[in-house]
Amino acid sequence: MKAVRYHSYGDSDVLVYEDADRPVAGAGQVVVRVAGAAFNLLDAAIRAGLLQQVFPVGLPHVPNYDVAGVITEVGADVSGWSVGDAVVGFLPPAAAGGAAEYVAAPAEVLAAAPRTGELADAAALPSVGLAAWQALFEHADLKPGQSVLIDGAGGAVGGYAVQLAEQAGATVTAIASARSHDRIRSYGADRIIDYTATPIAQAVAGERFDVVLHLAPTSPDLEPTSAEETAQLVDLVADGGVFVSTTTPGPEDAGRGVRTVRVFTRSDPAQLAELVTRVDAGDLKIDVAERRPLTDLAAVHDQAAAGRLPGKTILTPA
User: Fold this and answer.
1) Parallel/antiparallel/unpaired status of strands 29-38 and 66-74
2) Residue 18, Cα to own-chain centre: how many angstroms?
3) pLDDT for 222 beyond 80
4) How remote is the C-alpha of 252 from its chain's centroid?
5) Three-class SS of the chain
6) Predicted TM-score of the model (pTM)
7) What's the average model confidence in pLDDT over 126-138?
8) Residue 219: pLDDT band with limits 50, 70, 90
9) In this model, does residue 130 exceed pLDDT 70?
10) Dihedral class, residue 79 (left if φ above 0, else alpha if ψ from -120 to 50, else beta)
């Protein structure tokens, strides 16, 4: 089969499109013929060798842990799945991923794929959809009638967070650049703030929110600025509220009874199945900016590093 792999850590030029052995299903695994695999910024960080202690991959490594496809082989000790089933999953990031024609996946992390839309595009749902779900409902314990401020609402996680918070009966204030406003408005946000036009603290002066969800990515060389901006966001949390971040963490002791949480998303097939149910019901939209051939993966990494990706990108085998 064809796959994109890297044999050493490094820049995007270590990514090689090449022949690789087709995987065989081990105990507890199924083999999936890949329809689509989503690019995530974490893929690039792992490739660069920045997370070797957290995600120690075996080399050569096939990246892309968000995948959608069809089962072609079922291994021993697997129940509930059959050849021909369309599935979606958030695979272990350190294991072989979906940047290939086939991938061996732990059966326990998979959910049935949405019946609506393109199967390849379903790869845009797992890890980012789960990040939004876990941030809002596990960590923030969001309730109907509460107010939530979502910083980074234009991103992949943010788009799902806006939709889920709105459906939960919260009042949603979304922070995003103008290019995302139409999409976020269609998701049901009550108010949208363009942070490039007005500083957040100025735009919401005098207000506080039950939940502040911080999703905007930060760069290590901007850490002093990001820390200052994070502190400003924490100040926007109401007394007894919660600050939830998938990026720069808030202070351990924020005062005023404010709880701060750093989210580390985990694979959860039951939660993923609930997200799929909402997609099929028309309540949750999967947004894919572009679908590109697997041979473009190195270019996608370069565009992401330059901040030029137009949105969620799906890679498809030739």
Assistant:
1) antiparallel
2) 27
3) no
4) 25
5) CEEEEECCCCCHHHCEEEECCCCCCCCCEEEEEEEEEECCHHHHHHHCCCCCCCCCCCCCECCCCEEEEEEEEECCCCCCCCCCCEEEEECCCCCCCCCECEEEEEHHHEEECCCCCCCHHHHHCHHHHHHHHHHHHHHCCCCCCCEEEEECCCCHHHHHHHHHHHHCCCEEEEECCHHHHHHHHHCCCCEEECCCCCCHHHHCCCCCEEEEEECCCCCHHHHHHHHHHHHHHHHCEEEEEEEEECCCCCCCCCCCCCEEEECCCCCCHHHHHHHHHHHHCCCCCCCCCEEEEHHHHHHHHHHHHCCCCCCCEEEECC
6) 0.95
7) 98
8) very low
9) yes
10) beta
Q: What is the distance between the alpha carbons of residues 198 and 268, in angstroms, rounded to a whole number?
A: 38
**pLDDT of res. 226:** 66
**What residue has token string 């379903």?**
122
Measured CA to CA, the distance from residue 102 to residue 53 in angstroms comes to 27
Strand partners, 192: 174
Structure tokens at 122: 């379903």
Phi, psi dihedral angles at 150 (to 5 degrees): -115, 110
- Mean pLDDT value of segment 235-246: 96
Structure tokens at 128: 């980012």
